[in-house]
Amino acid sequence: MSTRNAATTLAMFPGQGSQYVGMGRQLLSEFPDSRLAFEEAEDATSINIRKLCLDGPEDELKLTANTQPCILTVSAAMWRVLEKEAGFRAEWFAGHSLGEYSALVASGKLALNRAAFLVRRRGEAMQAAVPAGAGAMAAVMGVAPETLLSRAEKASRPGCVVEVVNFNSPQQLVIAGHKTAVEDLVKSLEAEKARCVMLPVSAPFHSSLMTKAREAMEPLLRDTPLCNSPEKVIANRTGKVESPYQIQHLIDQIDHSVLWTQTLETAVAAGCVDFVEIGPGKVLNGLAKRQIPKDARLTHTDDIRAAVTSLCR
């Protein structure tokens, strides 16, 4: 059994951008019971999640409507393996964007089959909200949040907006909006020696351009029951523990910023010293390195066997 204290452990779940062809291969090979999570999600979504995860092709996997249920399923299956094989427990849960659904599943507040159905529809709604090529996103490094917020506000005009949508870390922010406005702001920032990277995404997620996606998802989310489990979930929209967690937080996060920096600040202030990323990739480990205490422990499950071994100690 794990010797780590659940009360000081934050289970973190990644969002879109963590996917890769082959994710879940080791999981399914070494822990055959994990197929049950895949079967549950496949029944709920009517798509072949295992094939997409293991074989792609990449162009199919990276479609938002496919990416979201695939990442959710891998994350949920990994959580189950950690519970069963390592006796792993956590009291604190958070997920980045899509990962908030994974966090709700792991914390016992949302059923996996319902979550898989919702994120499939969420991905479809996000793809449909903005015409292809009309929106864009870019990561901005080394610019203070208040400075970027001001610059984005000044760069926006009616019918052509750019907004700060992800507060990923003190060193990394993400902007999104109409493609022209995003590209113009990036050029302006780069001229001042800021480092910017255009992101390979199909829509300006978490911006006000996602209003149509929010409207499409709201009836489905309103019709979704949540269980009032004792585990604490930190919401993207507020960066704070929401108890009881309300479905409104999932509605609001569709067209509002992800406050991940504030999420980790909340966890650190609460005494969390173990930060475990559960899902494909290591994106959240990278974001957390400079923000959590130096003596805190970071673990990821991309190598699920190594994670089980580590978390059993």
Write up what this structure looks like.
Helix 13 links the parallel strand 8 and strand 9. This protein has helices spanning 25-30, 35-45, 49-55, 58-61, 64-86, 99-106, 112-129, 145-155, 179-191, 211-222, 248-253, 260-269, 283-288, 304-312, and strands at 9-13, 92-95, 135-141, 162-169, 172-178, 195-198, 232-233, 274-277, 297-300. It has 2 domains: 6-129 and 209-312, Malonyl-Coenzyme A Acyl Carrier Protein, domain 2; 135-201, Alpha-Beta Plaits, CATH 3.30.70. Helix 5 (64-86) packs parallel to helix 14. The protein is of the alpha/beta class and 313 residues long. Helix content is 46%, strand content 14%. The strands form 2 sheets. Strands 7-2-1-8-9 form a 5-stranded parallel β-sheet. Strands 4-5-3-6 form a 4-stranded antiparallel β-sheet.
Keywords:
14 helices; 2 domains; five-stranded parallel sheet; 313 residues; alpha/beta; 14% strand; single chain; Malonyl-Coenzyme A Acyl Carrier Protein, domain 2; four-stranded antiparallel sheet
